[in-house]
Amino acid sequence: MLLTATTAKERDELGADIEHALADIGRGQPNLQNYVDPTGDQKRLATAVGTWNTDLRTFVKLVKEQPLDLSQMNWQVGMQDVSLLVATGKLEKLVNALIEQCGAAAKATIESAATNLSRVVR
Q: By CB distance 3.0 to 4.6 Å, which of 12, 41, 60, 71 could disulfide with 37?
């Protein structure tokens, strides 16, 4: 949507929306500390999110500097757009893998608790 904005005001509003979303992600990230391995997974996620965050901000800045006419945009916009899509896909895969790991750990905890409870009840 940022690329197809028809006015500078619309582009600014969309840029502000992206900034708010990035701030929300930043505030939510510490909540993951209880759910992922702090030495490996958390560091990988923090690095990936940090890189993606920087790339997204760079892209927004680049797009805001361009004319509204898509045909007059700098060639770097298209390159950055594709690069950002690739980075977003990698980040999604990492997040999905962490979700699967958390799900497996939760299932193992529930099974262990059920086994221990059944021993106590007998």
A: 41
Residue 59, CA distances (Å) to 6, 12, 41, 109 in order: 17, 13, 27, 42
pLDDT tens profile 40-86: 777 788 888 889 999 999 999 999 999 888 889 889 999 999 999 99
- Assigned domain for 3 exists: no
Average pLDDT estimate for 23-28? 88
Domain that holds residue 98: 8-121
Euclidean distance between the first and final Cα of the chain, in Å?
61
